[in-house]
Each structure stands twice: as C-alpha cells, then as structure tokens.
Amino acid sequence: MVVLDCETTGIDHRKDQVIELCIQHGLGEDAQRSVWRIRPSVAIEPAAQAVHGISMAELADCPTFAEVVDEIVAAFADVEVFVGYNVMFDIDMLQAELARLGKPPLELGGKLIVDALRLWQQFEPRSLQHAHKRFVGDGFTAAHSASADVAATSRVLSGMLRAFGLGGQDWAQIASVCGPRRTH
Q: What is the CATH number of the domain that holds 109?
C-alpha cells in the first residue's frame, strides 16, 4: 500500500507536469517515504505556485521526469492499494507523464484505490441541505425546487465567503480555487 501525492505545474493533465512526487509505504509517521523533485519543461502556473510554493528556480538542478521515470515506475511495481486525497488527480497526472514519454501506464487493473476526500464525503455529506445547516445555521424545507435551491445556494456561498475569509476576493480568485475544472 502506498500513500501518494503530486505537486504540479497546474491542473491540466494534457499540458501540465509533475514537479514533486511523494510515495509513502504504509500509514504512520515513521513509514518509509520516497520524494522526487522534478524539473518541468513548462512554466508553473501562478495559481499552482500559490498552492505549493515551489518555484522554477528551486527545480533548476532537479532531474526531468524522463530521467527518473524508471525509478518511479519501479516504486509502484508491487503496489496493491493506492491511497491519496483526491487521488485520481495524482494518478491521472502520473499517467499523462508516462504517456508523454511513450511508456505504458501504471497498471491499475485489480488494484484498490482509496480516496480520503471521497471517504470524508461519504461519512460527512456535502449536500446543499448539509451546507445550509453549517454555513447558514438552519435547514431549509423546500429543497429541490429550483427557486429554493438557488436561494439556499446564495445564502450558503455568502456564509462560506465569510467563514473562509474570502469576502474581499474577486470572482476570478474564488473561481480559481473551486471552479469545476479545478481538481487539485
């Protein structure tokens, strides 16, 4: 079993690249970790750099993905369980890197994938009714009529903006962290 996470130049697996990969074998603070820092051939998106804080200058002397690909693939060779937080983003980024190099994809057939984000969503639902209770303070009874849902969404977003300290942000900044194309 491995826990994995990638930091990337952005969120588009068609063009963005992995710049840091960590694989931890097992759970726990004393579990063995392998970390690769990787020099990309594309620029790091400002929004991505704001999240992970890694600059192109820090990666200038690092190997390219092509230079460490065999080592990375070998690290996944006997893995039966892949664990991560929004882990399909990380797996898709690795698969894209492999495809760009003409390498076979990581073999996922018969493997188990455990996504901590999805697990959390299963045990603490994220429905509009739950969000309304958390961010507005009460439930609402007219759920699933378009008009009631629009009004509730407006109240929930206003509550979220207050709760997360985003009240002064412009819509472009807010969308950059939660738009539907954003996966990491």
A: 3.30.420.10
